[in-house]
Structures are given as C-alpha cells and as structure tokens.
Amino acid sequence: MTPPHRFLIIETMKIGLNVILLYAFTLAALLFSAYKDRKKTKKAVLKGLKSLNNILPQFITVLVIVSIVLSLFDEALMTRILGEDSGFLSTIGAAVVGSITLIPGFIAFPVASELLRSGAGIVPVATFISTLMMVGIVTLPMEIEYLGKRAAIIRNTLAFGFSFPAALFVAWVVAL
Amino acid sequence: MGGGVMKTIVRKYGTALISLIFLTAFLIFWPQKSAQTISTLSYQLSTMLQIIPPIFILLGLFDVWVPREIIIRLMGPGSGFKGGLLGFFLGSAAAGPLYGAFPIVAVLMKKGASFTNILIFISAWSTTKIPMFLFELNALGYRFAVSRLIIDLAGILFIAALMNLLIPQREKDRLYAAAQNR
Questions:
Q1: Which of A99, A165, B62, B75 is 20 to 30 A from A80 in CA distance terms?
Q2: Which residues, in sequence order, are CB contacts of A96 under 8 Å at separation 6+?
C-alpha cells in the first residue's frame, strides 16, 4: 500500500507554493484594506471567522469521510475495478469509484494514464475522471449546507448521468 | 438556557460527532487500514488548516469591500452571456478542491449573482481547471483532454440550465435568504 504515500509527497510540495502565494496575497489584501479603513477590515475579519465557524462541522465530517474512503479505495482497488475489462461493469464501477472518491486531478491523471497503459478501456477511465470531478458524494454534506438538499442532489445526479455520454464522446474522439 | 446551548451544539456538531465516532470504530475494528487512514486524515487536515483561514479572510474582505451593485451588474440575473462567462472563468481559474467553492458561492449569492451563474461557477470549479488542463494534456494526451474539455463545457451549460428549471423559485429565494446570514 505504498502508492498513496508516494503521491501525497508530490501533492504536499505542489500545495507548498500555492499556500505561500495565497498567504502573501491575503496579507497584502489585509494590509491594503487596513490602510484604507481599519473598521471595515476588522468587520471583514470577523465576518470571515464567523462563516468559517458556521461551516466547521461540515468540514470535520467531510474530512473524516474522505480519510476513510481514500484508505478503502486505494490504487490497487481502483486498478482492479477499472482495469478488469473495458465493458459495461467496469464503467459502472468507475462511475461509482469516481463519485465517492475525492482525489485532486494531478494525482488522478497519472493514475488514469497508468490504467490506460495497463489495458483499461477509455470509456471507464473517462467516466472515472468525469465523475471524480463533477460528482462529490463525500462533499455532499457541505454542498447541501450551501445549495440546499434539492439542488445538491439534483446537481450530483445530473453530473453522474452526464458522465456516461461524456465518456463515450471522449472515447469516440480518441479512437478517431 | 443551558439546555438551549447544548441543543444548538448537538444540532450543529451532531453529524461531525457521529462521523468521529464512526472513525474511531473504523480504526479499532479495521486496524490494517488505520495507518493509511490516519496518514490521509493528517494530510487532509493540514491542507485544510493551511488553505481555509486565508480563504475565509479573503471572503470577508470581498464581502465588506465589493458593493452588491457590482456583482449584480456583472453576474446578476440581467448579466446574460457575460455573466455566465465570468462565472466560468472565476471557477476555472481557482485552484483547490470542490469544498473550497461553496463558501465563495455563499458570498456570490449574498451579493446577488444569479442562480444559473452560480451553478456555472461550481461546475467550472469542479471540472475545467486551467492548471489541471495542462496536467491532463501531459498525462492523457491532447485528444482525451481537449475532447473532455469540450464535452464538459457543454455539460456545464446543460446542467446549469436544467437545474435552473428544476429548482423552484421558492427554493432559490430560501437559499438566497440563508446566504444573507452567513
């Protein structure tokens, strides 16, 4: 079970630079805002903290679900589900795995590329990428909090359904 | 009085508590998965702790400084094609997981962006990341990446339009009213 750790290291490095830029930008914005209007800046910080506090329980829930799910759906299992054959079942399996897991693109793309090289079909791999991005089962508690139950469920259902024709289209273009 | 506070805490943190209990049970009863789970958990936690405070500070600044009129004009119900385009580019340019988009959605709602443009923003955030596209190009080839981009563009518009029809106005009003209090 080493692969996830290998990817995690790459990811941590990637995020390092982003985080520094994000903090530099935030600090500059804060300083500029404080220079313009201290009262408004204080209000802004309080507002930010308040909305962070409001969403904190959902963050915790998502965090826990993601950790459990990622430990169950490791690379070995994904390869087994997506790579068996390129038929109907592996496509459904790919859609389910893609919907449940929450993996950043720069991890998912190399895995997908690896799967294609080892003989997985384009349709399941494209379905996996599509559902991975558009469907978020683990982030559903947060999505419901902001978009409401109805909109969140409809959005994820439509995105799930859309992933199949999208994958067929991608497979068709790749085969051209 | 004390009971009321307890009730609020339980209601607010109920799901989080259940998930934590579930996690503990999972770690105890499935010890061979525990190392992996804890490593993922600590990694995700550190990402969240690093990224989330500045995002919420920026959102607070945005909320305080950007007048509602500007967002209504740029992304409101009358903003048309340009509003959708702006939603698409805002979503595509941003980096970070999908859960990072939702707090931004709340602020955009508060400032009067239209429901369709917000849906376009969410879909673009999840699907058509500009930095990710280059990565996909390298890993999966240009045919795969470009055709996925094209079909997903169509899908984003299709899903946003269909949802706009499927969600009743009353539900939209409720969501916008809730966004005012965040």
A1: A165
A2: A131
CB A122 within 8 A of CB A170: yes
Q: Give whole-number Cα distances, B102 to A41, A70, A144, A148, in Å.
A: 23, 22, 10, 12
Q: Count CB-CB contacts under 10 A for residue A35.
A: 9
- The verdict on a CB contact (< 8 Å) between A68 and B59 is no
Contact A133 B126 (CB under 8 A): yes
Closest approach of chain B CAs to the CA of A92, in angstroms? 18
Instruction: Identify which has the larger pLDDT, B129 or A2.
Output: B129
Rounded CA separation A75/A79 (Å) = 6
Q: Which residues of A touch B106 (CB under 8 A)?
A: 51, 146
Write the CB contacts of B103 (distance below 8 Å, at least 6 apart in sequence): A51, A55, A146, B55, B56, B59, B182
Interchain pair B54, A139: CB under 8 A: no
Distance, in Å, from the CA atom of A158 to the CA atom of B95, rounded to the nearest integer, reads 24
Task: Please give the span between the terminal C-alpha atoms of chain B, in angstroms, as a whole number.
Answer: 24
In B, minimum Cα distance to A24 occurs at: B54
Q: CB-side exposure of A7: number of CA atoms within 13 Å?
A: 18
- B44, B159, B175 ranked by CB distance to A63: nearest: B44
Are A129 and A98 in contact by the 8 Å Cβ rule? The answer is yes
Residue the block writes with tokens 């699907």: B127
Yes or no, beta carbons of B182 and A147 under 8 Å apart: no
pTM higher than 0.90, yes or no? no
Min Cα separation B141/chain A (Å): 9
Instruction: Using the structure block, give the residue that is written with the tokens 């010890």.
Output: B31
Q: What is the pLDDT along chain A (176 residues), one digit of tens a residue?
A: 334 444 444 444 455 677 788 899 999 999 999 999 999 999 999 999 988 888 888 888 888 887 888 788 777 777 777 766 657 888 998 899 889 887 777 677 877 888 888 778 899 999 999 998 889 888 888 899 889 999 999 999 999 999 999 999 999 999 88
CB of A23 within 8 Å of a chain B CB? The answer is: yes
